[in-house]
Amino acid sequence: MRERTTKNIPAGQLLAAAALLLIFLGVMWEFIPGIWLRILVFACGLFSFFLVLWWGQRIQKDESDFAGRLCGDIDALMDGHEIPDYHPYEETGISRVRGKLLQYDDKMRESCGRSDQDKQTIQEVVSHISHQVKTPVSNLRMFTDILQRRELSFEKREQFLATMASQVDKLDFLMQSLIKMSRLETGTLTLHIGTNGLYDTIAKAVSGIWAKAERKKIEMTVECDSRIAAEHDPRWTAEALENILDNGVKYTPQGGSIHIHVRPWQFYMRIDISDTGMGIEREHYHDVFRRFYRGQEAAAQEGVGLGLYLARGIITAQKGYISVKSSVGEGSTFSVFLPE
Amino acid sequence: MDIVNVDHVKKYFETGNRLVKAVDGVSLLVEKGTFTAIVGASGSGKTTLLNLIGGLYRPTGGRIIVDNMELSSLTEQELTIYRRRRVGFVFQDCSLVSELTVRENILFPLALDDSLPDPVFFERITGALRLDDKLDRYPHTLSAGTQQCAAIARALITRPSILLADEPTGSLDVRTSQNVAGLLKMTAEMFHQTLIMITHSMELAQLSDRVVRLQDGRIV
């Protein structure tokens, strides 16, 4: 603990106090009878004066010690040391302040740690995506090689070109996913949140998935009052909803259905997206929102396991959340909650 | 970084000549800033575990370390201070003081610790929990969901190290439960709190980063 000298009471204050005391005693002297009584009053007055003087000095010393200890604690934290003699659960002012100082220090260290974590996360993401990209790139190389070297029939050529086009689409999708994911992970996603009608947002999401649903003869219905609005970014929310719908279409068999129902839900607007797909086991409710997660049943379907992860990230960034309820073999309902 | 370390903790209660093993050798690490849901049937030991972490019970065996401090090394007075400064509780019955306004209820924990509120932080919490236009009202004039939001704000105002919620939506209807759970999750994330919530609802549990299942006092 650093020792500091006590601050001297300014001379002016001392003189003023002494003068007041003498005036008081002088006035009292006129009214008090008897010499002994006068001496007693004088002694009491003098005692009180020195008591106040001592008390003032004591308070100043305590303040100075307190400030000194805090300065020592801050020095220790700046040097990366622990605060010496720290007892977090004492009923003292210094313990309370030290506790807050440590909380602040923790928060600052956490912020620094977060940027290291962000770098690691991006590295992992890039590594995974590059692994995913290898296959379509290899396929493209192989088909290009074949097309360059061999004489092929027109039909074969068309078939190979169509396959190459789908590989390019996959590459494009992966690149777009990488960009979105990195923005989400590093918190640089730019959202323009305002009170916007949900009907248009849902319409945009549905229009993006309509063709796929049509091909599988999946019936899509929407129940949403055109007056319903919520605090959201229409563009990104439509993307999140489209990801959920895409999931629904992917895992719903031919002839199935997807129903979207929007309703007010006290503090939120609730969007239920219900499908008649294969369903999700309860113990995997959590897993389906994890990055790159694909259940065993999903292995046969195309995809990289990012859609629901991105959807949750987008909705969470808007202070909303997503939950799921499902029955294996019957279907799932994804509920998206957006602030009203 | 792990903020809560529950290390082979046991809590046994003696009732007459019976020994009830409420928590029987539970080990659990909770990472700082995460949301952990503890689920299990009635009597599985969820509330006992939460109360052990909150310093309301002393373990029969094992250690509980919260924020680098082993709780069993604290005296009763130190435990009281630990609960006041480091733990935010949200109970099933929101336990608001009926004679105090919402604002006074929220600031009550600071008053107990002789601390002054940071007005900006207060505004952020009450804004996030939709309480800004209800601060001068009394609890009995509010809906159950709004009362619970006030209880959440009260738990957050001291910037605790951990937020413990024991069935915070247990006495609410389905709609309000989801709303309150959503707001609890959102505010915990917003203020980088570590949240441990007990619930019997898997639907609410899935809002968490991690689900821990208890059965007969043990993690399964």
Structure write-up:
The complex is a heterodimer of chains A (340) and B (220). By secondary structure, chain A is of the alpha+beta class. Chain A has helices at residues 11-31, 35-78, 93-149, 154-185, 198-215, 234-251, 307-317; strands at 194-197, 219-223, 229-232, 257-265, 268-275, 321-327, 331-339. Chain A has three domains: 11-85; 118-185, Helix Hairpins, CATH 1.10.287; 194-339, Heat Shock Protein 90. Helices cover 59% and strands 14% of the residues of chain A. In chain A, the strands form two sheets. Chain A has a five-stranded mixed sheet with strand order 2-4-5-7-6, covered by helices on one side. Chain A has a two-stranded antiparallel sheet with strand order 1-3. In chain A, β4 and β5 form a beta hairpin. Mean pLDDT of chain A is 83; it is low at 1-7. In chain B, α3 (102-112) packs parallel to α5 and α5 packs parallel to α6. The relative contact order of chain B is 0.21. In chain B, the strands form two sheets. Chain B has a six-stranded mixed sheet with strand order 6-7-8-3-9-10, sandwiched between helices. Chain B has a four-stranded antiparallel sheet with strand order 2-1-4-5, covered by helices on one side. The model of chain B has no long low-confidence stretch (mean pLDDT 91). With 220 residues, chain B is of the alpha/beta class. Chain B has helices spanning 46-53, 76-86, 102-112, 119-128, 144-156, 174-190, 202-205; strands at residues 2-15, 18-31, 35-39, 61-66, 69-70, 87-90, 162-166, 194-198, 210-215, 218-219. Chain B has seven helices and ten strands. Classes of the chains: A alpha+beta (340), B alpha/beta (220). The A-B interface holds A 88-91, 96, 99, 103, 107, 110, 113, 265-268, 282, 285-286, 316, 319-321, 323-325, 337 and B 1, 32-33, 69, 74, 77-79, 81-82, 85, 113-115, 128, 130, 145, 159, 161, 175-176, 178-179, 182-183, 185-186, 189-190, 192, 202-204, 206-208, 210-211.
